[in-house]
Amino acid sequence: MATLNVNPTRMELTKLKTKLVTARRGHKLLKDKRDELMRIFLELVRENKKLRREVEEGIKAANQHMSIARSVMSDKALNVALMLPSQSMSLDITEKNVMSVMIPEYSAKFKAPDEHDIYSYGFASTSSELDFAVKSLFDIMPQMLRLAEVEKSCRLMAAEIEKTRRRVNALEHVMIPRYEDTIKFITMKLDENERSATTRLMKIKDMMVKDAIEAKRAADYKGA
Amino acid sequence: MYKIAAIGDKDSVYGFASVGLSVFPEDEAAGAARTLRKLAESGYAVIYITEFLAAQIQTEIERYGEQTMPAVIPIPGVTGNNGMGLKNVSRSVEQAVGSDILSE
């Protein structure tokens, strides 16, 4: 029995009882938090896996086009074509609070007025394969952003879930049993003290009664 | 206003320039680590890095794991993918649940 090192007094007992109530409530709350986090996390992870497959497929397709473009165009021409992009993407980030984990939400903004303005080169001197490569990258971009969002959220949540899980376990298996044991120990000790006080009183009473009887007898004897 | 970057070998990332990302061609781990650190400090919210490079500077990437910014996301390069992206997802699951319950 693991008990805390405390004096077995009534005051400690009251204190411990309040602590136990708090610990139980904390445990319940943390457990709820963990379950909810876990539910969201698993949803996110499933989405993460799906997105990752899509993005990997998309990039693979783009790379295939790119390789062909590279083989039909000279290195220099390709560099020139891609050197000065006409489009520039920036992000607005809002943070969303999910069970005290701050997860990011991205929304993309484009510099050029038309977001489809992705071809930064003249079509005369470039291969059409380059267009396909650029187009497929552009098509996969929303998924890539969502992937970044989801993957980051997953990482942050995993860390938070681990922490919460540890706290729940510590409360459930260490703190609460320890409080319970200590409370039991103090109650038993106090009961024991009470019993010993009662027996002592009874013993003293017996002694006093015996004394009284003897005194009475002595008086009677003298009188007789 | 935050920016998006792509780090990787030239062939893998140049295409991203045309869709509006800032590209940083890097061929080796040391340079990539340096660039990554520089970008993380200068307002890049999302940094895509080829799996080939990401595998070599894992510890460097790990530092940003528990910060909200930046998100460092491995992507496959021209040389194909080494499954690192999906492995990272599985690792998150393992950290959260205790074992990888979603592997197939």
Outline the structure in words.
The complex is a heterodimer of chains A (224) and B (104). Chain A contains 3 helices and 2 strands. With 224 residues, chain A is mainly alpha-helical. In chain A, a hairpin with a 2-residue loop joins strand 1 and strand 2. The longest helix of chain A is centred in the last third of the chain and has 96 residues, at 128-223. Chain A is rod-shaped. The model of chain A has no long low-confidence stretch (mean pLDDT 87). Chain B is α/β, with parallel strands linked by helices and 104 residues long. Chain B has a single domain (3-79), classed as ATPase, V1 complex, subunit F (Rossmann fold, 3-Layer(aba) Sandwich). In chain B, strand 1, helix 1 and strand 2 form a beta-alpha-beta unit. The longest helix of chain B is centred in the last third of the chain and has 14 residues, at 84-97. The mean pLDDT of chain B is 84. Classes of the chains: A mainly alpha (224), B alpha/beta (104). Chains A and B meet through helix 1, helix 2, strand 1, strand 2 and helix 3 of A and strand 1, helix 1, strand 3, strand 4 and helix 5 of B.
- Biggest beta sheet summary of chain B: 4 strands, parallel
Q: Which regions of chain A contain 5 or more consecutive residues with pLDDT less than 50? A: none
Strand and helix order of chain A:
HHEEH
Radius of gyration of chain A: 39 Å
- Return the structural class of chain A: mainly alpha
Looking at the overall shape, the CATH architecture of chain B is 3-Layer(aba) Sandwich
Principal-axis shape of chain B equals globular
CATH topology name of chain A: Helix Hairpins
Oligomer: heterodimer
What order do the helices and strands of chain B follow?
EHEHEHHEH
Specify the number of helices of chain B: 5
Derived from helix and strand composition plus strand pairing, the structural class of chain B reads alpha/beta
Helix share bin of chain A:
over 70%
Overall outline of chain A: rod-shaped
Distance between the termini of chain B: 39 Å
